[in-house]
Amino acid sequence: MPSQKIFASPQDVEAAFYEALERCDIEAMMAVWAEDEEVVCVHPGGARLVGYTLIREAWQRVFANGRKLRVRLSQQTAVTTPFAMVSTLLQHIANHDDESLSAPVAATNVYVRGALGWRLVAHHASPVPPDSIGEASRILH
Length: 141
Fold this sequence. Notes:
This protein is of the alpha+beta class. Helix content is 23%, strand content 36%. The chain has a six-stranded mixed β-sheet. The longest helix is centred in the N-terminal third of the chain and has 14 residues. The termini are far apart. 20% of the residues are buried.
């Protein structure tokens, strides 16, 4: 069952999301998600998961080894309205006791404001080749 913690801003939810990821803390992770069957999560190279229960099970598998992570964020941008925020960024993830970072992961997070404050409703992460980071801003679809 998710926490009833009130997040006052989308930035608070995003900070709590990445703190939970670093600690591999399933309860803290699920406290940021909206308790809704329309929430969506896509892990790098993974399937599209829809619904609170499937997302919880996926994060439990990610956290199963119990290792602590180090997450560095870069190239953050956000579009914010009074009731929603779409955040895009690069995640650089490493094991806590290892100085080398993995290849970056491009992430999009969507937060909405409801009766219980701000919550995460979508997280989509995809691997990015390290040599394409500088080029990404110059490429159009």
